[in-house]
Amino acid sequence: MTLLNVDIDLLRTFLTVLETQSFTRTAERLLRTQPAISQQIKKLEETVGTPLITRDRKAISPTTTGLVVKSYAEGIIGLNDKMLADLVDAAPAKIRIGVPDDYAAVYLPELFRVAARRLPETEITCHADLSRNLSKRVANGDIDLAILTADPDTPSLHVISEQLVWVAAPDFDIAQRPLPLVLFEDGCIIRDAATSALKNGKIPHRISHSSDANTMIITVINGGHAIGAMPRCTAEHAGLHQLVDCNLPPLPSVDICLMVRDRANPAVRELALGAIAALSPDDIAVDSIPA
């Protein structure tokens, strides 16, 4: 007889779906996407060879086989969590956090407060980079946790949406052509959004300044050398003059999201959920901490 191994993550997902009665809330709690949760349930059902849940408008219920799996799963996960609690220090010596430089001053203070409260003995190391680079570094395991601008092609956990705005010195002449821009370096999602908006609006423009440091971009804007585009939260934090009714094309909003390294230490997940609760308390429920 061939022995099969059941991934404990699949069992945890199964139990969480039954507890929350929602694939969406399960995804939020376990820091995964909803399609990933659906795939995990499907994989577990394929492993045991039969459906484990039934769904209607009112409830998600275990099948007869699902009840058996639920009973075993509760015992297996309980033993797993007890073993980790007994043998592994839940708080790692170091957690590596990534964030784009323009988000650092806005979001890191709250993240640091959460870390100081929940992980007082853990060293927090911070890495600034473009969002697209950070997502790759999280996927590669080089960073444990990142706050970044969402990319449609990369699964992530939504935290909050921010409107992009044009910013410039109060006396900047926006009629000059080509319009000088200061933006982050090539590969930045917001840079692409700003240049696409101007191109679609048929406004001649050029990138006169670029940098990987938000302080340099702010200096250029305050000096009256170019206009910039950034999330409203960043502009307000820096006290920059936002352009309204300026005959420039409207900018889209961006989703700011969280990415957590696969199979991250439970303390990293706890920090992530604590950060989400602090940054977006009305959007995501975090009533328990997954292992």
TrEMBL record:
Regions annotated as coiled coil: none
Keyword Transmembrane helix: no
InterPro entries: LTTR, LysR_HTH_N, LysR_subst-bd, WH-like_DNA-bd_sf, WH_DNA-bd_sf
HTH lysR-type domain residues: 6-63
Pfam families: HTH_1, LysR_substrate
PROSITE patterns: HTH_LYSR
Keyword Ion transport attributed: no
Keywords: DNA-binding, Transcription, Transcription regulation
Entry similarity comment: Belongs to the LysR transcriptional regulatory family.
Name recorded for this polypeptide: LysR family transcriptional regulator
